[in-house]
Specification:
heterodimer; A: alpha/beta; Rossmann fold; Alpha-Beta Plaits; 6-stranded mixed beta sheet; 4-stranded antiparallel beta sheet; 14 strands; 27% strand; elongated; B: mainly alpha; 13 helices
Chain lengths: 338, 281
């Protein structure tokens, strides 16, 4: 198998006949690549991942995962993928090792083999010392590592990670990144991950896709996306915020685009450092006073905002999703229980 | 990297998932002891406190022999404690299986179900592991309760041999298989444990009282008798009573077992079929 680990064509999911969660999504993930899937809450990330891991049935379209059709060959797909869900799914009453062996059995890995693999994986995620302790006593980072180990038990070809660092502290997050990089480097694994943290995507992912309102709005390498913004971003406010000075700014040379967002102006410029004074002069000549100005070199955050807008989302998350997220956050902080 | 472990055994994961459920129970001594104590309390309260036999046998105006006869005619045995303690066996099964639906609701809420669904484990095995663990738990609990009943003075019937115990547990196996399939079916799409609790509260006592577990159906009003006649608990109780207390009547015993088998098979099959459909949306 060479080339594509994941081919998604027109994938669509409609809930209750009218709620379009994922709308004709197309993308491909290359073999051995770390692919990031970004988007606001309720954009369709989890729904997409759930279809790819054969937990949800697509309403339309299709996807090929490691050469198998998710609708027609779900068992084959399940055998070649590993999944680390957003939630902490390890059984708290069992020990770390027992949890891994439970996962092994779910894949039908024979006893001898599974013991050997469990040993290897516990070493990989540095949990050997705690393998016989109940999961209730684990910290958030240890739980996350245990989830990684469980997901790797069948030596997957494509590894799905849903929000792998949600709720973790800075150190643990960095450690998790290292494991993900290791998987790509040592085993050449293809990794598909969703995340809310853009610096995480920027650092880890070879390519990212941004999804919003169930549609893919852009795909590319983080660098290409940043360059695609066409320059630096300048944000500027004036004293008399009712007046619209977009026209004035647009006339300044090397200004590529002006958008008025939430009372401030978001300006795309080339050579921000040199253009900024020219813009201020132009505004002053027209009798307005600049009260605030900031200049940022493009980051993935800017790319993200460019495509998904800055306004707060009044997304309707289901009670169930919110409940799970609360549990995840609590467990990430090392708390136990339901 | 992808040396895929395609298992030859289509039932892989079934026992691992069942054992996961059971471990929650036997690794938690409080839960274990409480689940045994509850039926024992019932047995003490109903069998000893509400001593129906005493109404007749302690009344000096009723001759002893006559009193015994009334008891025999009503309960089939002179001793209400024996009558009731066998009925409690079905009660144990009912109350244990009822909770089996709860765990699938929690698995869904906590994301475990999604994780299992993403593995190649058979969809039917996911449901059957819940059923099996409920069956094993209820049979073990019933065995312990039966042991206590012996100690507390259960009078064995004339036809009793240790071999009959096989039949007793056979009947209890069938009823628990059917009941747990029903309760899991009710829970299979639910995300709210509150709903599940409400359903359980609605069903448990009516199912228990509209049967012969504590009182003979022949003395009940007609409409209640009609309910008791379809209630599988009636048949499980009748079969176990015949095997432990009564002289055995082969025709009714065979009918009891037929009814229980059909009940168990029908609901287990429906459960497996619907789990294919409804576990993934």
């Amino acid at each position: 198998m060479t080339g594509e680990a994941l081919v998604v064509e027109g994938l669509t999911k409609v809930f209750n006949k009218n709620l379009v969660a994922v709308d004709h999504v197309n993308f491909t993930v290359k073999e051995g690549e770390i692919f990031g899937f970004l988007g606001p809450n309720g954009a369709g990330k989890t729904t997409t991942i759930n279809m790819l891991i054969t937990v949800l049935k697509p309403t339309g379209g299709n996807a090929i995962v490691c050469g198998f059709d998710i609708s027609k060959q779900p068992s084959e797909v399940r055998n070649c993928i590993g999944v680390v869900p957003q939630e902490y799914t390890a059984d708290e009453d069992l020990t770390g090792r027992e949890n891994i062996l439970l996962c092994a059995d779910l894949y039908g890995i024979p006893g001898e083999d599974s013991k050997k693999r469990a040993q290897e994986l516990l070493e990989l995620v540095e949990l050997t010392k705690f393998k016989d302790k109940q999961v209730t006593t684990y910290s958030g980072g240890m739980r996350r590592r245990l989830e990684l180990a469980c997901g790797l038990i069948n030596r997957p070809h494509v590894f799905f990670l849903d929000e792998p660092t949600l709720g973790l502290d800075v150190q643990t997050r960095a450690a998790t990144w290292n494991y993900i990089k290791l998987l790509k480097k040592e085993y050449g694994m293809t990794i598909f991950m969703t995340t809310h943290y853009l610096e995480e995507a920027d650092m880890l992912c070879d390519r990212v896709a941004i999804i919003d309102h169930g549609k893919i709005v852009t795909v590319g390498t983080p660098d290409a996306l940043k360059e695609g913004l066409g320059g630096d971003i300048m944000t500027l406010s004036i004293k008399d915020s009712d007046a619209d000075i977009s026209k004035i700014i647009e006339k300044v040379p090397r200004v590529k685009e002006v958008k008025k967002q939430d009372g401030a102006y978001r300006i795309k410029v080339e050579d921000g450092e040199e253009t900024a004074p020219t813009i201020i002069d132009a505004i002053r000549t027209e009798g307005h006073k600049v009260t605030r100005l900031s200049l940022t070199k493009p980051t993935l955050d800017e790319v993200y905002l460019e495509y998904t807008g800055k306004s707060m989302r009044e997304e309707e998350e289901s009670k169930e999703t919110l409940f799970r997220q609360r549990v995840t956050m609590r467990r990430a902080r090392g708390g136990g229980g339901h | 990297m992808t040396q895929n472990s395609n298992s030859k055994n289509p039932l892989h994961g079934l026992w691992a998932l069942t054992n996961r459920e059971l471990k929650k129970w036997y690794k938690n001594p409080y839960l274990f002891i409480l689940s045994i104590i509850q039926p024992l309390i019932w047995m003490g309260l109903f069998g000893r406190a509400m001593n129906l036999s005493a109404i007749f046998t302690n009344n000096p105006q009723i001759p002893q022999q006559f009193a015994q006869q009334i008891m025999r005619q009503t309960f089939g045995t002179a001793d209400y404690f024996s009558y009731m303690s066998v009925g409690i066996l079905s009660f144990v099964v009912l109350f244990t299986t009822m909770f089996s639906g709860m765990s699938i609701v929690w698995d869904r809420r906590l994301g475990f179900l999604n994780k299992v669904l993403s593995t190649p484990v058979a969809r039917g095995s996911i449901l059957m592991s819940k059923v099996l663990s409920a069956v094993i738990r209820s049979l073990l609990q019933a065995a312990i309760v039966l042991g206590f009943a012996f100690v507390l003075g259960l009078t064995l019937g004339p036809d009793f041999t240790p071999l009959n115990l096989l039949g007793v547990f056979g009947a209890l196996f069938l009823i628990s298989l059917g009941l747990s399939s029903i309760f899991i079916l009710i829970a299979i799409r639910s995300t709210r444990w509150e709903t599940q609790m409400a359903v359980m509260n609605l069903l448990n006592l009516p199912l228990l009282f509209a049967s012969n577990a504590l009182f003979p159906t022949s003395l009940m009003p007609d409409w209640l008798q009609a309910v008791a006649k379809v209630n599988p608990i009636t048949y499980a109780t009748d079969a176990t009573r015949q095997l432990i207390l009564y002289p055995i009547d082969m025709t009714t015993l065979i009918f009891d077992f037929t009814y229980l088998s059909v009940f168990a098979v029908v609901f287990t099959v429906i459960g497996i079929l619907l789990s294919w459909r409804y576990l993934s949306r």
